[in-house]
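Study this protein:
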Amino acid sequence: MFMNFRRIHKCQCVQLLTTGLILCVVMVCWEELDHHVVSHMRSYTYRYLVNSYDFLNSSFAITSNHHNREDGSDGEDSELVNYAYLINHPGKCGGAGADGKSWDDVLLLLFVKSSPENFERRQAIRDTWGNESFVWSKLGASVRLVFALGVHPDAEQRSRVQSALLQEDQAYGDLIQQNFLDTFHNLTTKLILQFHWGHEYCPQAHFLMSADDDIFVHMPNLVKYLRELLSTKTGARNLWVGHVHRGAPPVRRKKSKYHVPDDLYPWPSYPDYTAGAGYVVSGDVAAKIYHATLVLNSSIYIDDVFMGICAKAMGVSPQEHVYFSGEGKAPYHPCIYDHMITSHGHAKDVRSLWQAATDPTVHSHSRGFMGSLYCTAVRVMMLCLPYYQNTYSCMAAFT
């Protein structure tokens, strides 16, 4: 047999060129591959095969180490800093003091995380799903709404914005503000504010909800859901419910605002946590998170991740609810409104959505066998087909 050496050399050259081209592509696109593929493979392996986060209690315990705070000064870890209240309403939930006044029975303490300049968003919430009078008169439920804020980060605008906030609070009495810069990297400080304020001034609340100011909450559906939980034999205990992220990897891309360096969090996977846009915890879990914030280092500036760290350290696991949205916006349709709890991304259409979602005729679409079948088909079309992205999961269509 005769071998064609020229052909062999040509094949080897093609292989070398192909290999070189692939390596070049991998090198150029490595950051994207690492972020979208490799990091997720590592995190899922850690989460589902190892599934041990024993390091949390030791590695995140408060130490005497100092960290740079965002205001540019060197200070202790934020959980060791008692930020002064600039605006506070200790009597929002009633009280139990020397005057003999008893605590009010509060079904839900609702904390909305808001930026100081977002007056229009706060007003829209007061006029719609956060309206305490509506919830009491129409649903017979006691809800307390407060907005959690820091101070405006721009020193030149701070005085003007603060003056406007004081006027706003004088009119509505629902702002809770501490003296820290209201920035993305201080969201964990804002989370700590919520649980500390709740523990101090509203410990009797059956539930605590944390939500962004661009969230829509279908309050009638939420109140119904919470009451069903309270009516169970065990009552509502050990509850942390929302849109759950499982086995999420830390973002290592330096350009991302969610970037977490290895020296801050060296492990390949976060503990399970709910999206910070909107979640609910029972009163006993709120107390556990409060105590966790006293002993755990809050240098993780992604608040929902820090919440997951606190909960894991306290033995609390998040529960998935298909009608709590994460980063997504719910489709606009009566068959969706019939079940929705939260929807994200509503900075400008809260009033119109509230009017549509709470219209008395909404439930008529799903009544009876044919109505239920129709709405199931509609939800399948909206939630299970690929052209709808980043909304409720397909499972919600059959719930």
Q: What stands out?
A: The longest strand covers residues 143-151.
